[in-house]
Amino acid sequence: MNSLPSSSPNSFVQGTGDPAMIHQDELRSQSALHLRSNQLTLESLRLAVKRSIDVAGALTGLLLLAPVMLAIAVLIRLDSPGPIFFRQLRRGHRGRLFWVVKFRTMVVDAEKRLRELESKNESGGGVLFKMENDPRVTPLGRFLRKSSLDELPQLINILRGEMSVVGPRPLQIRDSELLQSVNPEGYRQRLQVMPGLTGPWQVGGRSNVDYARMVEMDIEYARTWSIGRDLWIILRTFVVVIAGRGAC
Q1: How do strand 85-91 and strand 171-172 relate by DSSP bridges?
Q2: In which residue ranges of the chain is pLDDT below 50?
């Protein structure tokens, strides 16, 4: 007569498994999926609210500031020969390229003259280009830059979905490539959120802050952004613009 196989602690594992343990694993898996789903829903809601603020802010800004923008356009025409607007290729969210729009503050051949001025770059680390008395900037352009009025046309970029009201500033290709070569991880992380019309760099010192500190602030913002913080940065931006602090 054959004896029955002896029971051992591993018999269920080797066979069909302990039903209680399987049930617990299923519950943990379902709980994790539910938590992940809730996190995605919350993030989608936050992004939807941010986009709503962007669209409402851009439309309101364009309506209220239309007379100011028209006056600036006329003054640019009178100040120096060349177009009213200046378009420059920038790197935005997840590395996507787009054309940023600004009021022209420089002479028409400014881009060509940049190479001959590289040796006079006053920015620490050389990633950003900064020159206090840049000969390419027009007389009116100095005022527009100091007051940040040259950035107003980027409200159009916001409506297009290429920028947000708040986020890291989109870097021009020169600066973007240099940053990628000296700090690949910082380059990658600051592109995880939509670039902004204003951001932590603008309210934290702008031209008085070197590129390394700028990247630190941008990464910290990308990791911890919230609607409340965006509203705080917007309020701080008005203070900084009125005071004219840190402008190029």
Answers
A1: antiparallel
A2: 5-15, 248
pTM: 0.79
The whole-angstrom distance between residue 189's C-alpha and the CA centroid of its chain comes to 10
The encoded tokens of residue 202 equal 């603008």
Which positions ≥6 away from 44 have C-beta within 8 Å? none
Helix%, strand%, coil% for the chain, nearest 5? 60, 10, 30
Tokens of 27: 């519950």
Question: If DSSP codes are grouped into helix, strand and coil, which group holds residue 92?
Answer: coil
What is the predicted pLDDT for the residue at 17?
58
How does DSSP assign 129-186, residue by residue? ---TT-TTB-HHHHHHHHHTGGGTTHHHHHHTTS-EEESPPPEEHHHHHHHHHH-HHH
As to burial, measured by CB atoms within 10 angstroms (0-12 exposed, 13-18 middle, 19+ buried), residue 197 is buried
